[in-house]
Amino acid sequence: YSIEVGFSLLTLIACLRLWQRHGNKSCIVVLAAGAGSWWIIETLLFLLGTRSNGEDGSGLVDACVLFGLPINGVTGGLLAALIRGVAEGGVITILGLLPCDFYRGRHAIKDKVLLAYVAAAYVSYFATTFASTRKEKEVGASVDSRRELFKPGSIVATAIFVFVPLAQLVLAANQPAFRRRALDLLLSLSVLGLLTNYQMYFCNVRWVEISGTTEEAYMRAPVAMEHLILVYDAVVEIGFMYLPFYTVPWAMGLIDDDEVTGDEAG
């Protein structure tokens, strides 16, 4: 989890600089919303036994090792939940939002220090997958994480996350700045999701399985189905499901979209 901590800190610094130097506080709000929401989900999954702190065949996550120090038991599980909450909830949303805000608020691109932090965050984010590259896809094996995509509970949760931002976009017909930024973010997150999924695919740490024969619990999905699922995951389970981390704080009055195109502070 050391790399996750690294790119999370870099992203936090970038968000704070955007706020202090450029008057864009919405990034720090979105980071907090995404990290807090995902942390709660990860903590509940750990407490309910869906996540395990170790590689014990329940497959569920890597053991918590931070800067070479293994942290076992409940402490390790809760710490891992916090790190995943920030890295997989807050940071990913920000990595999608930053290109949108740089495009709309071009003055921020002149800030070389900010760009250095952002570039380092992206590099370390993608380095996480490169660090776990495998020689081949271990289809059917005991892996760190396996989930069933279309379980009833997953379908309901996905439907809620998709419905909320879509309803907000429809109801906010007289808010062009919000709609433009939300749609930009949806596109950016989908592209980030595709890049992430296919990086993991070619590094042999992500693939799609289907139920196998009686001798094999799982087998590799047909090629067309596999790529369709990878695209679905990027657009729906990253693009749409992360979008509420921006749209809900906006609805609560915590985000001002006009600040993106404002002049530099100070």
Structure description:
The protein has 266 residues and is mostly helical. It is built from eight helices and four strands; from the N terminus they run ααββααααββαα. The protein has helices at residues 2-22, 26-47, 73-104, 112-130, 152-171, 176-202, 223-242, 244-251, and strands spanning 65-66, 69-70, 209-211, 218-220. It has a two-stranded antiparallel sheet. A two-stranded antiparallel ribbon has the order 3-4. Mean pLDDT is 85; it is low at 53-60 and 262-266.
Question: What is the residue-averaged pLDDT?
Answer: 85
**Shape annotation:** globular
Strand order of the largest sheet: 1-2
The sequence of SSEs as H and E is HHEEHHHHEEHH
What Rg is obtained from the alpha carbons, in whole angstroms? 19 Å
Assess the beta-strand content as a share of residues: under 5%
* Oligomer status: single chain
Terminal CA distance: 37 Å
What secondary-structure arrangement, pairings included, does this model have?
Blueprint: H1 2-22, H2 26-47, E1 65-66, E2 69-70, H3 73-104, H4 112-130, H5 152-171, H6 176-202, E3 209-211, E4 218-220, H7 223-242, H8 244-251
Antiparallel strand pairs: 1-2, 3-4
Helix pairs in contact: 1-2, 1-3, 1-4, 2-3, 3-6, 5-7, 5-8, 6-7
